[in-house]
């Protein structure tokens, strides 16, 4: 059904094409080292101005710098020439990291609960 108008002087973008001005503003929210990684990608031509939507950078900025770097490295380890929608592809990486982090947190809670039950059972014996 067409694209949506973007704010900030962006104008209309066809579906699947990001507004480079919005993406650039969101890129500045990332850790400096990660900004430099993306700048190198754009300068080398591996990414073009409309490849990633600002929502990718906004979501990525919610993670600690080390996680940001790992996710960008994961993105770069793939053959991007065959990826039609790089935004969706990167969002998949973000979602897997969030789910992995939740799983790690849950497993720590489960381990704590098991240790507590084991101690309680041993004390009662």
Question: What's this model, at a glance?
Answer:
Helices cover 63% and strands 3% of the residues. The protein has 125 residues and is mainly alpha-helical.
Question: What does this protein structure show overall?
Answer:
- This protein is mostly helical and 125 residues long.
- The chain has helices at residues 20-27, 32-44, 54-60, 65-76, 86-124; strands at residues 5-6, 11-12.
- A two-stranded antiparallel sheet has the order 1-2.
- A hairpin with a 4-residue loop joins β1 (5-6) and β2.
- The protein is globular and about 65 Å long.
Which characteristics define this entry?
5 helices; two-stranded antiparallel ribbon; 125 residues; globular; 3% strand; mainly alpha
Strand order of the largest sheet: 1-2
Sketch the major β-sheet. 2 strands, antiparallel
Beta content comes to under 5%
Helices, by number, come to 5
Output the helix-strand order.
EEHHHHH
Query: How does the helix and strand content classify structurally?
Result: mainly alpha
| Model regions low in confidence, pLDDT < 50 over at least 5 residues | 1-16, 103-107
Number of strands: 2
The end-to-end span amounts to: 68 Å
Give the fraction of residues assigned to helices: 55-70%
Radius of gyration: 20 Å
Q: What characteristic shape results from the CA principal axes?
A: globular
Mean pLDDT, all residues: 76
